[in-house]
């Protein structure tokens, strides 16, 4: 068995080298992200099943079990690489039995597409607390064999085995995507193509936080950076209808696979708070935007544009920040982005109304006044290269609240909270962005 696995890895590395030699002028481009923000279960999941059988002890985390994370890359390429993160763990975590395949349905993988993954030439990697690790390039033969149209909207199954106990798990709570888990003690099952080994489901992502694809030199990535309204609260479970998803479909219709949109939203995130964030002192909204900027934006490949929607949580009863603090935080972060990514465009998104929200932390007049002041700053300060005016398309000017048709919640069918738009609201937001703001590279002509 060990010889067979070694042979498979050797063949994969040989194919990857052949692909590399045959495709010059290509580079890595971010294709999917799931910004990590805390040790499980700290965070804000949506429609989460009961996980007491899958993870009996949050302190122990995953125990000798395999996690199959389902993700939708925004573009595909002939090679991929994945990043596993232990950024907010408290002990080293060893991963082995790592595989990437094309999802068929549920936890099942399309037969023949499941590819073994190595790290620095080895089939296992141990990641220290606070660290992450990129895999070696993974050849995806099914990409070359399929048309772009056939892969549009398809999802990958990224499987990995946690050897021993992980301790507190680095995760992204609000995936709004079903993924799958084996029982504790089930061992390495990532090579299994069928769904039988994965009896449990989750609507969160664990440990996996980025995927990049090899793409043409004129391909670039757009990062949607923000809080729960970027993360997709109240959108449709497994529906891929957050505003970045809507924007992505518009861009692909115009420019094909020469652009990728990745989502770096975290439910509850703030521009300037909390001042301190550690695994021992977590916060449901994750580290402040400035603290996570390196991991979630600056370290990604091929980024040309950042669209930033944030601020409403800073002005909530939980944040209670001043307008001046948020303004200064925005100026600092935009400056850092420009210093690291030459020629980048940073688009400021106006903050949508929470006035009258049923959420205890939101909806009061003082918050709305700060929000309006922040939106005026975003529109007129000149800090940003352009504006995505989400406030304009979601606001009911008669009430000062979110438009009534955007309120009912799309995942559970609830009444909504007048804070998070539903599927219809996100569609309006994604349609409101001027695509001309997002094409910074010369020579990128629209498809006929």
What are the defining features of this structure?
alpha+beta, 448 residues, 25% strand, five-stranded antiparallel sheet, 21 strands, Rossmann fold, globular
Structure description:
With 448 residues, the protein is α+β, with helices and mostly antiparallel strands. The chain has two domains: 180 residues, no CATH class; 223 residues, 3-Layer(aba) Sandwich (Rossmann fold). It contains ten helices and 21 strands. Strands 3, 5, 6, 7, 8, 11, 13 and 14 form an eight-stranded antiparallel β-sheet that branches. Strands 1, 4, 9, 10 and 16 form a five-stranded antiparallel β-sheet that branches. A five-stranded parallel β-sheet has the order 18-17-19-20-21, with helices on both faces. Helix 5 packs across helix 10. The chain starts with a helix and ends in a 17-residue tail after the last helix.
Present the secondary structure layout:
Blueprint: H1 2-22, E1 26-33, E2 38-39, E3 63-71, E4 79-85, E5 93-105, E6 108-109, E7 115-116, E8 124-127, E9 132-134, E10 138-139, H2 141-145, H3 148-151, E11 156-165, E12 170-172, E13 179-181, E14 200-202, E15 205-206, E16 208-216, E17 220-226, H4 228-231, H5 243-255, E18 259-265, H6 289-298, E19 303-309, H7 323-340, E20 345-349, H8 365-380, E21 386-388, H9 390-394, H10 423-431
Parallel strand pairs: 17-18, 17-19, 19-20, 20-21
Antiparallel strand pairs: 1-16, 2-12, 3-11, 3-13, 4-9, 4-10, 4-16, 5-6, 5-7, 5-8, 5-11, 12-15, 13-14
Helix pairs in contact: 5-10, 6-7
Strand content: 15-25%
The best one-word shape is globular
Largest sheet: 8 strands, antiparallel
Q: What number of domains?
A: 2
Q: Supply the CATH class of the largest domain.
A: Alpha Beta
**Spans of at least 5 consecutive residues with low confidence:** 1-22, 443-448
Got a strand count?
Answer: 21
Total count of helical runs of at least 4 residues = 10
The name of the CATH superfamily of the largest domain reads SGNH hydrolase
